[in-house]
Amino acid sequence: MLKKLGFDESSVIEFIDSCYKRYSIISFSKDILLTASLIRTKYRYSYWDSTIIASVLENECNILYSEDLHSGQEIEEQLKIVNPFK
To answer: pTM for the whole thing?
Structure first.
């Protein structure tokens, strides 16, 4: 945010604060990290993508919008990946 968007530090702090007011922020847990490892092995996603998927599953979401993952794929019969640009 500092380099690419030209924010100063007070703008970064304001942005972070606004995110916590507007959105449900997910903290990583041991269960999420263990599930991410299983997702990575089973579906062959990267560690970071698997961590995102595991977080979404842990929070019982059923759609994950991403232009980078395999659109249309279902994960664990619970989550569908959708590319919002297709």
So the answer is: 0.75
